[in-house]
Amino acid sequence: MLMSRKQEETTIKVTNIISSSMKCFLAICIVVSITFFSYSTFSRHPGWLGYSKSNPNFLHFDHTTKISTDTSLLGSEQQTNISHIVFGISSSVKTWTGRRGYCELWWKPNITRGFVWLDEKPPDNVTWPNTSPPYMVSQNTSRFKYTCWYGARYAIRIARIVKESFELGLENVRWFVMGDDDTVFFLENLVTVLGKYDHNQMYYIGGNSESVEQDVIHSYAIAYGGGGFAVSYALAAELVRILDGCIDRYAELYGGDQKVGACVTELGVPLTVELGFHQVDLKGDPYGLLAAHPVAPLVSLHHVDSMQPLFPCLTKLDSLKKLVQTHNSDPGRIVQQSFCYDLSRNWSVSVSWGYTVQLYPSLVTSKVLQTPFQTFGTWKSSSQGPFIFNTRVFSPDPCDRPVIFFLDQAEMVKMGETLTTYKKVLAEPGLGCFRTDYVNATLVQLVNVSAATFQSNTWKKVRNLSVATNLD
Ligand SMILES: *[C@@H]1O[C@H](CO)[C@@H](O)[C@H](O)[C@H]1NC(C)=O
Ligand SMILES: *[C@@H]1O[C@H](CO)[C@@H](O)[C@H](O)[C@H]1NC(C)=O
Ligand SMILES: *[C@@H]1O[C@H](CO)[C@@H](O)[C@H](O)[C@H]1NC(C)=O
Ligand SMILES: *[C@@H]1O[C@H](CO)[C@@H](O)[C@H](O)[C@H]1NC(C)=O
Ligand SMILES: *[C@@H]1O[C@H](CO)[C@@H](O)[C@H](O)[C@H]1NC(C)=O
Ligand SMILES: *[C@@H]1O[C@H](CO)[C@@H](O)[C@H](O)[C@H]1NC(C)=O
Ligand SMILES: *[C@@H]1O[C@H](CO)[C@@H](O)[C@H](O)[C@H]1NC(C)=O
Ligand SMILES: *[C@@H]1O[C@H](CO)[C@@H](O)[C@H](O)[C@H]1NC(C)=O
């Protein structure tokens, strides 16, 4: 039974979440107009369980980012592009078949350069598909020392990929980027991030493990290999000279990434942490992290074969395919978080673009919204922490959770504007929050988000704007 239909419009402002130091400088103010249509009840029962296609309750809002295009280049040298990167994917004949699909999600045949490094030649009766990166067989490493009792010798082979890649002598290379066969890279964002750095200087760029227990054992000073790390050409040229010696000097270190890290230290080069590289040393569901991603382009996701599927009702591979495809329509905005508040209802909305929306029937501060829900445990011991970022409890009580929506579809509505639609996850019958202040929020079935496409130079403009403001 359809009851009263009411329509209201509110215009509110949200800003992209930003670290407090940047906050006063960041001029990306997103004007959000929310149009709430009626929460018409279509049955005598609480409507929150029923999803009616013909009568969807939905939220709709617009992000209109006011960003002018900046075409100026840094110096006379051409901007870094995908052709300047050589990938080195560590794999083995045994793991490749099962993980190939993850690599092919992001690999662009004839565009991306690099190789999958195998422990041996694949069997002759296997035809190597041209959708996969071409393979190389790593050199024999039996002459090196390896003394880590809880590790495996193949770490040496992995450590040498950067050297063997360099020694191929490929033309016009600015960066060597290492990753695993269960790493998914977001290429445009990788290029954006590396483009900020001068490849003629020595740079070692990547990220730590999210689990403190890992960082304590393996070091905070290294870039974790699965999350991917980038070595500038200038650094690679120095590294290859001493790497083999380092491998023996650091025979007791567990992983290839640790050995490379130790060797980089000998050159006096520190790790440059970029927050978009994700080792994903997390057990369980990475939801919390991706729903409250730091303000940084998403560069990589590792352990994609061990994590729970990102979307309900999809496999791990299909979930990632969905995220990668959505990212194609606006690479810079993928999983970027925005907040908005509806003061007429005292509602808070947190959007992780292309992934999820959270609707809270209360006013929740930015500080809380930007703190990831702990939907995971630590990597090694599945403990409740600590992690290298703060987390908040993801309560089993539905009244202590926001109403959660997941991406349904993304489309380019016009040049420079996307529309993403998020659908509510249906609660199990009998579960869900029945409290009066929750009822209206649980009636919302769909959230539409319109957003101006993210300008890749926005990240740089933030830096530039801060300079300008400081001088004011
Ligand atoms: C990348 O830049 C180089 C110049 O350094 C150019 O030759 C190449 O075509 C560019 N590649 C792409 C994919 O734009
Ligand atoms: C890559 O290019 C070669 C020729 O340059 C072509 O034969 C091959 O089909 C291309 N591969 C893909 C996957 O497009
Ligand atoms: C390739 O040959 C081996 C035996 O040499 C066999 O075990 C394997 O199943 C074959 N693989 C394919 C894809 O035919
Ligand atoms: C690697 O080298 C050692 C000794 O030099 C040799 O015994 C071994 O067979 C080699 N392994 C491979 C896979 O070629
Ligand atoms: C929203 O919250 C404010 C302050 O907590 C309160 O005064 C106001 O009545 C609330 N508005 C609604 C619509 O609940
Ligand atoms: C729920 O929405 C209806 C219709 O907009 C409104 O009359 C009612 O006050 C709301 N209830 C709460 C608890 O906010
Ligand atoms: C929300 O988006 C869907 C397409 O994804 C569209 O069918 C629907 O009309 C949109 N609603 C509004 C209010 O824009
Ligand atoms: C940043 O500002 C500097 C100095 O004003 C300018 O030379 C440079 O081109 C700017 N970079 C970008 C990406 O806007």
Query: Strand fraction band?
Result: 15-25%
Low-confidence stretches: 1-74, 462-472
Terminal residue distance: 61 Å
Global morphology? globular
**Would you report the number of β strands?**
22
Number of domains as seen in the coordinates: 2
The kinds of small molecule bound in this structure are: 2-acetamido-2-deoxy-beta-D-glucopyranose
Structural class computed from helices and strand pairing: alpha/beta
Radius of gyration, CA atoms, in whole angstroms: 24 Å
- Please bin the fraction of helical residues: 25-40%
Average pLDDT over all residues: 83
Number of helical segments with 4 or more residues: 13
Oligomer designation: single chain
Strand numbers in spatial order across the main sheet: 1-2-3-22-21-20-16-15-14
Largest beta-sheet characterization: 9 strands, mixed
Element layout with pairings:
Layout: E1 8-15, H1 20-23, E2 29-36, E3 58-65, E4 85-90, H2 93-106, E5 113-118, E6 135-137, H3 154-159, H4 161-166, E7 175-180, E8 184-185, H5 187-194, E9 204-206, H6 212-218, E10 229-232, H7 233-249, H8 256-266, E11 271-273, E12 282-284, H9 287-291, E13 300-301, H10 316-329, E14 337-342, E15 347-352, E16 356-360, H11 366-369, E17 373-374, E18 376-378, E19 392-393, E20 403-414, E21 417-424, H12 436-443, E22 446-452, H13 458-471
Parallel strand pairs: 3-22, 4-5, 4-7, 5-6, 9-11, 17-19
Antiparallel strand pairs: 1-2, 2-3, 7-10, 8-13, 9-10, 12-18, 14-15, 15-16, 16-20, 20-21, 21-22
The chain binds 2-acetamido-2-deoxy-beta-D-glucopyranose (8 copies).
Keywords: Membrane, Transmembrane, Transmembrane helix
Transmembrane segments: 21-39
Pfam families: DUF604
